[in-house]
Design a protein that fits this description.
Blueprint (H helix, E strand, L loop, with lengths): L3 H18 L8 E5 L5 H9 L4 E4 L2 H10 L5 E4 L17 E5 L2 H10 L4 E7 L15 H7 L6 E8 L11 H17 L8 E3 L6 H6 L4 E4 L11
Parallel strand pairs: 1-2, 1-8, 2-3, 3-4, 4-5, 5-6, 6-7
The chain binds pyridoxal-5'-phosphate.
Pyridoxal-5'-phosphate binds next to strand 8.
């Protein structure tokens, strides 16, 4: 089996080629290591190989890991957060990539001590099993949180349906890019939204072609995880 360092090297090469292949600067794409249920040792191994951005799916797991690992890791919350669990993230997590309701936004506004980088999760395929703001609700949603001081909205993330064939993810990634453009064109927000978090191990090269600025990779980097 390959080491995490080898996987990371190959991933960086793939990102480089995918970006160059569509005329993008590879440095504009952030690799987020999705480390749910990975051990501290595995995360440390990725860190030692140069990886600094990690994402977790559960607030308590993120807090546990963040408190035991190097302080210069940039932690993202990539799982859905129940309002009562937001407190676990305080002081540990620099990014919330899954803002999916006004209620959660209000909790953050009330409890956060400092602004948190935030992505709005979009339910891009209108799946009942997934949370997120409906695409047509994005503009009103942004409007409703525009005066929140603790929420620094930088863009959007999505988790489209899984397809074996990554080409089938492409239309959803394209819709995300269009949505970002229309949000910026509407100018009902104080600043431009620049981030699109989309694409995982099997389809990140397609996501990069469609404008992803953050890709979230787990299985292509880490050893197989034990079932949750
Ligand atoms: C686990 C996870 C990923 C990574 O998925 P892989 O297919 O293992 O690369 C990305 N995003 C979210 C929200 C995840 O939970």
């Amino acid at each position: 089996m390959k080491t995490i360092a080898q996987n990371l090297l190959e991933l960086r090469q793939s990102i480089f080629h995918a970006a160059r292949g569509c005329g993008r600067d590879p440095k504009t794409i952030k690799l987020l290591a999705a480390s749910k249920s990975q051990t501290l040792e595995s995360i440390q191994e990725a860190y030692n190989a140069g990886q600094r951005v990690f994402g977790e799916n559960y607030a308590q797991e993120l807090r546990e890991k963040a408190s035991q690992l190097p302080r210069d890791i940039e932690w993202h919350m990539i799982g859905n957060v129940q309002r009562k669990n937001f407190k676990h993230l305080l002081g540990h997590c620099q990014w919330l990539d899954t803002l999916d309701s006004l209620e959660l936004a209000e909790t953050i506004e009330r409890r956060s001590l400092e602004p948190i980088n935030t992505l709005v999760q979009i339910n891009i395929a209108d799946e009942t099993s997934k949370s997120g703001i409906a695409p047509e609700q994005l503009l009103p949603f942004l409007q409703s949180i525009r005066d929140f001081n603790k929420i620094k909205v930088l863009g959007m993330m999505c988790l489209p349906p899984f397809f074996e064939d990554p080409e089938q993810s492409r239309p959803y990634f394209q819709q995300m890019r269009t949505l970002l453009q229309s949000a910026n064109a509407a100018k009902n927000f104080p600043h431009q939204l620049t981030e699109l978090s989309m694409g995982m191990s099997h389809d990140f090269h397609v996501a990069i072609q469609e404008g992803a600025t953050i890709i979230r990779v787990g299985s292509a980097l880490f050893p197989p995880r034990s079932p949750l």
